[in-house]
Amino acid sequence: MSRTILVFAERRDGQLRRVAFEALGAARRLAGEDGAVHAVLAGSGVAAEDAAALQARGADVVHIADDPSLKDYAPEAYLAALGAAMDAVRPDALLLGHTGVGRDLAPRVAAAYGAGHIADVTAIEASSGDDIGFIRPLYAGKAFERRSFAPGRPWVVTVRPNNLPPAEPADAGARGGGSAQALAYAPPPLLTAVRGVLRRASGQLDLAEADVVVSGGRGVRSAAGFEPLRALADALGGAVGASRAACDAGYCDYALQIGQTGKVVTPQLYIACGISGAIQHLAGMSQSRTIIAINKDPDAPIFGVADYGIVGDLFEVVPLLTAEVLRVRS
Ligand code: FAD
Fold this sequence. Notes:
A hairpin with a 4-residue loop joins strand 9 (about 130-140) and strand 10. The protein has a seven-stranded parallel beta sheet with strand order 7-11-6-1-4-5-12, sandwiched between helices. A five-stranded parallel beta sheet has the order 14-13-15-16-17. The radius of gyration is 21 Å and the shape is globular. The protein is of the alpha/beta class. The longest helix is centred in the C-terminal third of the chain and has 16 residues, at about 315-330. The protein has eight helices and 17 strands. Helix 3 packs across helix 4 and helix 5 packs parallel to helix 8 (about 315-330). The chain starts with a strand and ends with a helix. The protein binds flavin-adenine dinucleotide. Flavin-adenine dinucleotide (FAD) binds next to helix 6, helix 7, strand 16 and helix 8. InterPro entries: DHS-like_NAD/FAD-binding_dom (IPR029035), ETF_a/b_N (IPR014730), ETF_a/FixB (IPR001308), ETF_alpha_N (IPR033947), ETF_asu_C (IPR014731), ETF_asu_C_CS (IPR018206), Rossmann-like_a/b/a_fold (IPR014729). Its cofactor is FAD. One of its GO terms (molecular function) is flavin adenine dinucleotide binding. Keywords: Electron transport, FAD, Flavoprotein, Transport. It comes from Paenibacillus nanensis.
């Protein structure tokens, strides 16, 4: 079965987000051998290398909307850009990252085009014919459902970062590298405008896309107590996260909070330090590939979801881990 799939290749701070390549990988598989994959690049000052990177990983056509109105995310402007691509391509499906922008944009496009919408997809089961299962977590990851679209087009799907394999250059295969073209985009009147962005978090990796997250809880005891965790995260090339109790106590910024009312992360490796494992925290990290818990209480509930548990004082264990990682990597 061949399909035409459109991917919204999200950029952030002038760079393509990794989830754009993950959506592209899914698009390539959904499109089938004879299908077509199109990508939309929207922004102000879109780099030619971004289009080339998408083409090299299997996008047959990259549609570029480059306009000052697309500098920061504005729903009306991005909806117009994506709408222009939808009209030009008339895809069977549109794929976006399940990011702040993707979550805002996807239902708007779905409503505008009368499309079905499945959000926060963590796996895609493609069998023969039209029966494609989109797997998504429910009840903060305690259950999963398999959803599929009723007959009719188009579909709008958001994919959760860090769950689907990203498109690699080899995926372009013998397709010939694809092409890039300007999109017929007319900036609409904006109802609101971004005047400035105030950054709260440090310049660390995006938590949602980090392969390794080292998180601290109330057991870290102070802002300075996060330093050993930062050193471990740096040694592993990862990002630092936190429980709500650590944020409430003022040890770190709320931008680092993971859980039901914070960010949802699914890294390859999650290291929970001094975190008890309340259900609201598990909601944001229990789908991580491998979980290591460090806690001095052997009965802490976090050990119930951990693949590896270390019963001990985090201030002794974390520096030992960091030293060992640095030794192995040197
Ligand atoms: P605690 O539960 O106090 O645990 C601290 C742990 O540190 C203990 O297990 C202790 O044994 C261990 N410890 C102490 N010292 C050391 C040491 N030196 N070495 C090793 N271990 C040590 N929480 C979230 O995290 N994210 C959310 O999004 C979130 N949303 C919520 C939404 C609602 C509506 C509600 C009601 C609560 C929410 N919470 C959330 C709060 C949640 O219920 C817990 O209170 C919180 O997760 C506890 O954080 P903690 O594990 O860091 O602290």
